[in-house]
């Protein structure tokens, strides 16, 4: 889906802020707790990395951007818990109001048993019997697709041509795994794109490399 998370190549965000060498992993104590809660929520819901990413990309602008990086993770955890009936939809707001000193009756939360992760095997690398469809040095085009669900195909490369520089092993396909429709493992290719191919001739010249799943690509004539 073309959600708020697909920011690559878009304008208006200002200069990227580089992290400082001595920057702590969790600048504030609640950041670490938000990270842990996110992992726990996804595990309780029987999710995987791709389903968690899909939860994040479905957040609205405020929940994704305005609340900061770890706020985004916390908002994603809340979405996962409520969508999987592990937490009442109004429970978070009620608890926040209670902590602010209001007299609010918190709704009861369902207490289902913890669910097993729905991934068939650990990790995401898989073996496939077929040969790779593309080879190093081959010109390929990113398909001009706009899937309704989760995808790792960035908008700014769709319809553009690049060159395969590396054929990587097969990995679980995020577009199906995020929705629990099977792993559909595919080869992954490192594809090099000229910046002027992506953003026009007046762009500063440089080469951008992206890892792309096989079904995202087609042969360029």
Automatic annotation (TrEMBL):
Domain called Nitrile hydratase beta subunit-like N-terminal: residue spans: 1-111
The reaction(s) this protein catalyses: an aliphatic primary amide = an aliphatic nitrile + H2O
Superkingdom per UniProt: Bacteria
Region ranges (Disordered): 1-27, 100-130
Protein keywords: Lyase
Gene3D superfamilies reported for this sequence: 2.30.30.50, Nitrile hydratase, beta subunit
GO molecular function, one term: nitrile hydratase activity
Function: NHase catalyzes the hydration of various nitrile compounds to the corresponding amides.
Official protein name in the record: Nitrile hydratase subunit beta
Source organism per UniProt: Mycolicibacterium litorale
């Amino acid at each position: 889906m073309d959600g708020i998370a697909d920011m690559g190549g878009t304008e208006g965000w200002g200069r990227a802020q580089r992290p400082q060498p001595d920057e702590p992993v969790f600048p504030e104590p609640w950041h670490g707790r938000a990270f842990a809660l996110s992992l726990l929520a996804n595990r309780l819901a029987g999710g995987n990395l791709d389903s968690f990413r899909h939860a994040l990309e479905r957040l609205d602008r405020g929940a994704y951007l305005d609340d900061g990086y770890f706020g985004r993770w916390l908002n994603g955890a809340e979405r996962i818990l409520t969508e999987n009936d592990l937490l009442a939809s109004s429970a978070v707001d009620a608890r926040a109001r209670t902590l602010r000193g209001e007299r609010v009756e918190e709704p009861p939360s369902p207490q289902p048993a913890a669910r097993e992760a729905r991934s068939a095997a650990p990790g995401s690398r898989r073996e496939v019997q077929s040969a790779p469809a593309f080879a190093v040095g081959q010109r390929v085009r990113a398909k001009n697709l706009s899937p309704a669900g989760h995808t790792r195909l960035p908008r700014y490369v769709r319809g553009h041509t690049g060159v395969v520089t590396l054929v990587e092993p097969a990995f679980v396909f995020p577009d199906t795994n995020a929705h629990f429709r099977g792993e559909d493992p595919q080869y992954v290719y490192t594809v090099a794109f000229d910046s002027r191919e992506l953003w026009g001739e007046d762009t500063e010249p440089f080469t951008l490399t992206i890892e792309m799943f096989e079904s995202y690509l087609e042969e360029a004539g």
